[in-house]
Amino acid sequence: MRSLQCHRALVRLLGMAALIAAEGCAGRIRTPQPVNPTVTRPPVAYVATAYCTGHTTASGVAVKAGMVAADPRLLPIGSVIAVSGLDSRHNGVYTVTDTGSKIRGHRLDIYIRDCREAVRFGRRRAQVSLFTKG
What we know:
single chain, alpha+beta, Barwin-like endoglucanases, 2 domains, 2 helices, 31% strand, globular
């Protein structure tokens, strides 16, 4: 029994060490941030979903709050967007850092750390405005 507890503790410790190492490496990569951002177009209707898995995004940075996956043909990686029409805790400014095989067209996948909350999020309508450097 004690051996099993030690094994579980070691697995958790190794997992945390891997995450810390990945965060340290990803911390050197900077996502472009706008200077004096301005909204360029009126909001566009999107379907928003949420995800909670993965460690590294398509842009090479570690997943964290404030990131979304989008179709790179519509919102290229590095785009900064304003999302509205959701509940207040999910409305806000996000950076597109990821893509996904099922994220095509006017779809948006918001990273939420808590998997239960991501599942509860479901599928919702949202409004997306694109920022550009002003």
